[in-house]
């Protein structure tokens, strides 16, 4: 069964790459061709839906590596439609993105966790007449990827994950893991857990999940800096994924798009529901759909339910926010920020996320995002 799933994962990854290539060629990923361009090639109806009004010059942004693959698609599609505009998104980490935003060096930042009160306070120095706000733009599962020769299927729960990442469970054939994987031949091999080396919103979201779902086994605060002793560090989601891909006996956490692109098998999570839940965009959407807006005013920070036992809902999810000023954005980049983020939040922009391993933001929330983007000053 798991081997079949791994083959499906490989096929899905290849399909996503094919879709990505098509997106670059068609500007915004629509299959509805309605005409020809100057060179006789097909143009897409969706290309005309990207509103470039007022956008010009260069827009710099940075932050979350979790959304890198989504941002790559958006940037290619947008720049193909809006000639003369250059979007440079530096994929680093949520922490570095917020620092850059509060230093005034980027037009917006990507962060996998909402701004903290002190970060909001710092943003007022840059936003002048306003403050930084959180706009949920990308959702998706935080996949637990593993590399264990001879094992194509693995189910874990929050308690075992907490103990593995806290290096309390050290061998793959530990009784706690074996109990969750009856019939699977687990080797007497050391577990090599990998975590992020830099401040990371993905790390913080993993911590929030473990705090909520396994409070007696994970005693650390949910912060962007990795809190537990032991394990090995790697830079960025891509770095963690690369190490898991290369090292037998390893396990790590990263967004599903990295598992797809590197053909890494992922853990199913036992939530206590009817059956273990696979890390998929669709299953993450079921969990994100239950999120509630906890931000006030124009801030749209979300509260996620990490303890859901709803059928088919994958609980270990994150939402990446684009951080902007509600008012006081730089005049020279404001129109470009509104135009680009308006595309990302549009139906066409959100449509490309699933094929890339992400989950679109639920429409009820996304409608508020579009309204807020349109009103940025």
Automatic annotation (TrEMBL):
InterPro entries: ABC_phos-bd_PstS, PBP_domain, Phosphate-bind_PstS. The lineage of its organism: Bacteria, Bacillati, Actinomycetota, Actinomycetes, Kitasatosporales. Belongs to the PstS family. The keyword tRNA processing does not apply. This is Phosphate-binding protein. Residues 1-27 form the signal peptide. NCBIfam families: 3a0107s03. Keywords: Phosphate transport, Signal, Transport. The keyword Manganese does not apply.
């Amino acid at each position: 069964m798991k081997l079949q799933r791994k083959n499906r994962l490989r096929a899905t990854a290849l399909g996503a790459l094919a879709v990505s290539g098509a997106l670059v060629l068609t500007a915004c990923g629509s299959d509805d061709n309605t005409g020809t361009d100057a060179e006789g090639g097909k143009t897409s109806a969706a290309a005309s839906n990207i509103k470039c009004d007022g956008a010009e010059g260069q827009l710099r942004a940075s932050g979350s590596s979790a959304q890198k693959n989504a941002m790559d698609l958006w940037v290619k599609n947008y720049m193909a439609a809006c000639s003369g505009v250059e979007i440079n998104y530096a994929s680093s980490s949520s922490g570095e993105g917020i620092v850059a935003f509060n230093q005034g060096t980027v037009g917006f930042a990507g962060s996998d966790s909402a701004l903290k009160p002190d970060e909001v306070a710092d943003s007022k120095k840059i936003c002048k007449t306003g403050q930084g706000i959180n706009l949920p733009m990308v959702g998706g599962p935080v996949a637990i990827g593993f590399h264990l020769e001879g094992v194509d299927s693995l189910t874990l729960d929050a308690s075992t994950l907490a103990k593995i990442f806290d290096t309390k469970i050290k061998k793959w054939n530990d009784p706690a893991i074996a109990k969750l994987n009856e019939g699977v031949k687990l080797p007497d091999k050391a577990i090599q857990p990998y975590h992020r080396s830099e401040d990371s919103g993905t790390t913080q979201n993993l911590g929030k999940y473990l705090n909520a779902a396994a409070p007696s086994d994970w005693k650390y605060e949910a912060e962007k800096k990795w809190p537990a002793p032991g394990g090995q560090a790697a830079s960025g989601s891509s770095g963690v994924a690369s190490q898991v891909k290369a090292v037998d006996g390893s396990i790590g956490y990263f967004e599903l798009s990295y598992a797809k692109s590197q053909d890494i098998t992922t853990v199913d999570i036992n939530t206590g529901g009817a059956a273990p839940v696979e890390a998929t965009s669709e299953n993450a959407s079921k969990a994100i759909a239950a999120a509630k807006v906890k931000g006030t005013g124009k801030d749209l920070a979300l509260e996620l339910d990490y303890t859901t036992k709803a059928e088919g809902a994958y609980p270990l999810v994150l939402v990446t926010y684009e951080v902007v000023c509600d008012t006081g954005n730089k005049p020279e980049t404001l129109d470009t920020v509104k135009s680009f983020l308006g595309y990302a939040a549009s139906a066409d922009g959100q449509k490309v996320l699933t094929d890339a391993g992400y989950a679109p933001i639920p429409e009820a929330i996304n409608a508020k995002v579009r309204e807020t983007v349109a009103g940025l000053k």
